[in-house]
Amino acid sequence: MKMMTAIIKPFKLDDVREALHQIGIAGMTVEEVKGYGRQKGHTELYRGAEYLVEFQPKVKIQIAIADAQVDAAIDAVCEAASTGKIGDGKIFVAPLEQSIRIRTGETGEEAL
Amino acid sequence: MNKLALLAGTALFANAASASEINQADTAWILTATALVLFMTIPGLSLFYGGLVRVKNVLSVLMQCFALTCLMSLLWFALGYTIAFGSDGVEQGAFIGDFGNIFLMGISIDSVNGSIPSTLFATFQMTFAIITPALIVGAFAERMRFSAMLIFSSIWLLVVYAPVCHWVWGGGWLGNMGLQDFAGGTVVHITAAVAALVAAMMMGPRKGYGKVAMPPHNLTLTVAGAGMLWVGWFGFNAGSAVAADNSAAMAMLVTHLSASAGALAWMAMEWIRHGKPSVLGIVTGMVAGLGTITPASGSVGPAAAVVIGLSAGVVCYFATNWIKNTLKIDDSLDVFPVHGVGGILGTLLAGVFASQQLGIFSGNGFSDGIESIGGQMMVQATGVVATFVYTAVASWIILKFVDVIVGLRIDEEEETQGLDLVLHDERGYDL
Asked: Best mutation site among A47, A50, A52, A54 for testing chain B: the one with the most B CBs within 10 Å?
């Protein structure tokens, strides 16, 4: 099992959710986050005073997936979240040791 | 004679004249205008300023405006009114009223001032005496001690506002000279803004000014407050006709046109220079347009009002940038560049556009005995310089005095924590 974390542009969330649904991934956890990579921040102007706001709003998605689905999930997110412009985001994949469905007690890939 | 130049100043003497009969239409309008001007301070200015400060100081600004409303009202009743206007029917001195109406002594339910009850005139003027010190709050926002603010404002009302009010509207030397200040370019805006500038310079910048971002915490409050200011300003300017007449109607029209032009001008400046029209920019331009037309609102016609509004938006925009970015003076909420520069510009332009020989840009005429734009401009400039210098010196002395008694500023740690918690033990939002 793998834990996949994707940081994407907020307006791409619906497209990414739809793409993951298409390949059979049933659940996800979403957070609104702020951060920056190469894109850096933006400027705000108040009566002639300019402020550099260093953080950009982003959405972080976390999905736990079976090993067999990892490549398909990466492709789905890459395609759905891509605009070709700076700031499209990143995907991180990390090993996942265990998962448990609390209601039934199922474990491993059964619980995804 | 330009009827409007008489204004409040003459309302004082009108009582001595023959017909001391109340006109119900005038009374109804000035009752309304009085409510509108109070509406400018609470809630208008309160929200306008409240939204502009950081979240940890929002209550402190609302508190300052509210407390000033209460305190200035009582001071006006006790001393301010009589220093400014003296007593009805008495020849007034050049610099200060005759103290005949201390504690509004001698003003009864039957007293008449011009065509309205004396009680109403005193109340209408009271609302001006409330908003003027409240305007200054914007300069020292986020760092002044509440007690210091109360003491400063109290002395300032009696030593600066009331006498200058007397000079212009109470039968004093500037009014007699023919200064045209319909609704308070010198009396309200220049006095408040110069005091604001002096206070900002004396107190020094907020901790972290120029290094850390200090964006407004809630611009929606600011825009709501700005809208209330716009509406309330009709009472301010059209009410200053002290009658429900053609002068009031023209004042309302030119006020509205100037505000609109000022807003669009500032918006255009930002759009051109920064690529985007900001919301704070358009509402600031509106306030600049209103502040600038205020002294001229009784002297000029509609076409001139648009010119005045446009020039207000552009000039005040550059003034704000200059004071903030070049001079590095931390006038927290830009009181001087918006109100002061606007008030000075409007007072001077009133001298130009009062002329009846400018074609479509003609106004309502010069003051008695003045024949030319040059002559009127000299008087207007005298008013500006005298008000500026007197206010600057007196405000500096008062601030020094208050600093010695209670200290003007809270300490650094308290400033970081925010005035709401440190001074009032409360928070504006608990979401």
From this structure: A47
Please give the Cα distance from B254 to B241 (Å, whole number): 13
What is the per-residue pLDDT for B28? Answer: 98
Q: Distance from A55 to chain B by nearest Cα, in Å?
A: 13
Domain ranges of chain A: 2-111
Contact A48 B321 (CB under 8 A): yes
Closest alpha carbon to B5 in B165, B125, B189, B181: B181
Asked if the interface predicted TM-score (ipTM) of this complex is over 0.85, the answer is no
Burial of B382 (0-12, 13-18, 19+ CB in 10 A): middle
Chain B stretch 148-177, residues whose beta carbon is closer than 8 A to a beta carbon of chain A: none
Asked if pLDDT for residue A35 goes beyond 80, the answer is: yes
Residue B326, amino acid: T
The residue length of chain B stands at 431
Please tell me the predicted confidence (pLDDT) of residue B14: 42
Sign of CA dihedral B134, B135, B138, B144: negative
Q: Please report, as a single letter, which amino acid is at residue B245.
A: D
A47·B324 Cβ contact <8 A: yes
- pLDDT of amino acid B9: 45
Amino acid identity of B373?
Answer: I
- CB distance B325–A48 less than 8 Å? yes
Considering only CA atoms, which of B372, B322, B318 is closest in space to residue B345?
B318
Query: Which segments of chain B have a pLDDT < 70?
Result: 1-19
3-state DSSP assignment of residue B430: coil
What letter would DSSP give residue B55? G
The residue type found at B305 is A
- Residue in B with minimal Cα distance to A50: B213
Distance CA A44, CA A33 (A): 19
Phi-psi region of B369 (alpha: psi -120 to 50; beta: other; left: phi over 0): left
Give the chain A residue nearest B283 (alpha carbons). Answer: A47
Chain B contact set for A44 (CB, 8 A): 213, 215
Specify the pTM. 0.89
The single residue listed with the structure tokens 């024949």 is B371
Q: What is the pLDDT of residues A45-89, one digit of tens each?
A: 899 888 888 889 999 999 999 999 999 999 999 999 999 999 999
- Which amino acid does the sequence have at B32? T
Q: Is B431 on the interface with A (CB under 8 A)?
A: no
* DSSP bridge partners of B117: B112
Separation CA B397–CA B160 (nearest Å): 11
Peptide bond into A10 cis (omega under 30): no
CATH 3.30.70.120 for domain A2-111, yes or no, is yes
- Residue A50 pairs in a beta bridge with A45
Structure tokens at B153: 């404002």
